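Readers of this paper often ask what the protein records in our data store actually look like. Nothing more is needed to write down the fold, since each code stands for a local backbone conformation. Below, we set out a record of this kind in full and without editing:
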Amino acid sequence: MAITTIEDLFIHELSDIYSAEKQLTKALPHLARASSSPDLAGAFESHLEETRGQVERIDEIVEILGVRLKRMKCAAMEGLVEEGKEVIDEIEKGPLRDVALIGGGNRVEHYEIAGYGTLIALANQLGYAKAVPLLQATLKEEKAADEKLTLLAEQLGKQQSAERA
């Protein structure tokens, strides 16, 4: 289906982020198991629960608006998930892998933050007032997850420095 209207673009973007969230629900348990830091594993597990809620919010938006999502696979998330698998395969379990997993997690969050920001702007332009708060709630969660990962990276860095001293 060609994208010729702002509504087409909204549905395309919503379909893309839906695919991204679904892929993430499969990847997060692997990331949690691959982490050596209990705090990092907990962050991935807690974000898994949030992600499931985010999928439900998209389902709610689809129902509210009476739109139909396109069947598609988010290529960007597919690539980010693949990079996470490479980290797990190539770096021994421990603090270095944890830092690499955090970097990958931050990239995922930034992709999602951009996607939800775009969806909010499109929903506002289309007058989809009931969808906006749902999208904003998810955007807030994505930003909080990004901040949490950044704080964990800083803590791991401090631990590494203390161990070397």
Summary: The mean pLDDT is 95.
